Amino acid sequence: MIETLPIDITKVAKSNLENIDFEKVVFGKTFTDHMFIAEYSEGRWHDFKIVPYGNLSISPAMSSLHYGQALFEGLKAYKSPSGEVLIFRPIDNLNRLNLSARRMCMPELPEDIFMQGLSTLLDLDKDWVPNTEGSSLYIRPFMFATDEYVGIRPSDTYKFIIFCSPVKSYYTEPLRVKIETFYSRAFEGGTGNAKCAGNYAGALFPAKQSQDKGFHQLLWTDAREHKYFEESGTMNVFFQIGNKLITPELTNTILDGITRRSVIQLAKEWGIEVEQRKVTVAEVIEAIKNNTLIDAFGAGTAATIAPIAVVGHNDDIYTLPEISQRELSIKILKRLNEIRTGVSSDPYNWTVKI
Ligand SMILES: Cc1ncc(COP(=O)(O)O)c(C=O)c1O
Fold first, then answer.
1. Ligand 1 pocket, mutate which of 76, 87, 136, 236 (most atoms under 8 A from CB)
2. Which of 29, 91, 308, 323 is buried most, with the most CB atoms less than 10 Å from its CB?
3. Pocket perturbation via mutation, ligand 1, pick of 255, 266, 297 by most ligand atoms within 8 A of CB
4. What is the average per-residue pLDDT within 187-208?
5. Maximal CA-CA distance, the chain
6. Buried b / exposed e across 54-92, counting CB within 10 Å, b at 16+?
7. Which pLDDT score is estimated for 170?
8. Is the minimum distance from the CB of 304 to ligand 1 under 6 angstroms?
9. Given a cut of 80, is residue 2 above it in pLDDT?
10. Does position 204 have pLDDT exceeding 90, yes or no?
11. What was the pLDDT predicted at 1?
12. Ligand 1 contact via 196 beta carbon (within 6 Å)
């Protein structure tokens, strides 16, 4: 345990903040003034620094560029009405980062490095945390192998970086999703439950095909039979059928989403029956057809709660109940927002104040 992390800080000569309009930012394209960097070599993390956000100098032989030993996380910070910066469930993200690290043969990151790096960075860039409705500061921690070596083996050296980006909502309209019946994002024994870079690269081609057909995202199904739902894009997926809230159970092919966890906890506390189990494509299509499907939504940090308006399956297109009539997803989003922004108290200790 390092009591106070020795962080070498180099500030920008002039902040770029005055050139940014939080209402006009495009998701993931605007970056705050600074970033946090830590190096790993000889079995330990060292050289902690905060520097102006900018390019890195890397070797063309850097192993992560070739063999994909790279992972990332995504979390958000909000500004409370009194101007405090609140981070949503950061330790959950750290735990998932370390789960990914173990799966990818990468070093785990101790909590004090993560939390002190993050809070020092957010303290410096606190004016970048938007306080407007629907906006937040997206935080991107990531780690990658840096050995200058052409050959497949775990790297001996790594870089861990955190940068931040003020964002508005990820999706600007209700989602049209397509049930994928050929390609797979993950398979048993693979890396589906790790947030490693390769998972996302492999998903691009099938996702692009669905986008070319007018869908926003895919609804992934299991690799073996394409019979069970897994998740959707960078979100976990929920269906309300009758009075029950149903979501695929966690397996090693599904990312253990922190928004998913939060949704389940809130719903259970409201007395809603939540089922985490295998969810078949057939039962959801059946529920759409017989009007017992009341609500369907994706849950993830970037999109928060994204209502699903249309589902495509093979050549069929199903239109789901009117978004404005969906009580549950609207209530969950409202409650999550209240807690994340400190508008109401946080009985779960989900938020961490800087
Ligand atoms: C594949 C995938 N599933 C689900 C999620 C949702 O996870 P979280 O709620 O922690 O953002 C994400 C985003 O991190 C993701 O990339």
1. 236
2. 308
3. 255
4. 97
5. 62
6. eeeeeeeebbbeebbbbbbbbbbbbbbeeeebbbbbbeb
7. 82
8. no
9. no
10. yes
11. 53
12. no
Q: Which whole number is the average pLDDT over 22-33?
A: 93
Dihedral sign for Cα atoms in the order 186, 192, 198, 203: positive
The stretch 210-226 carries a mean pLDDT of 97
Q: How far is CA 71 from CA 38, 205, 315, in A?
A: 15, 20, 36
Distance 63 CA to ligand 1 centre (A): 26
Answer yes or no: is the C-beta of 118 below 6 A from any ligand 1 atom: no
**pLDDT on residue 133:** 85
Q: Does any ligand 1 atom lie closer than 6 A to the CB of residue 193?
A: no
d(CA 27, CA 31): 10
Q: Which of 247, 253, 301, when mutated, tests ligand 1's pocket best, judged by the most ligand atoms within 8 Å of its CB?
A: 301
Give residue 149 CA to ligand 1 midpoint distance, Å. Answer: 31
Instruction: List pLDDT tens digits, range 120-161.
Output: 999 999 999 999 888 999 999 999 999 999 999 999 999 999
State if residue 254 touches ligand 1 by the CB under 6 angstroms criterion: no
Sign of CA dihedral 217, 276, 189, 43: positive
Average pLDDT score, the chain = 96
- Atom 16 in ligand 1: residue holding the nearest Cα: 234
- The answer to whether the CB of 234 is under 6 A from ligand 1 is yes
Whether the pLDDT of residue 193 is over 90: the answer is yes
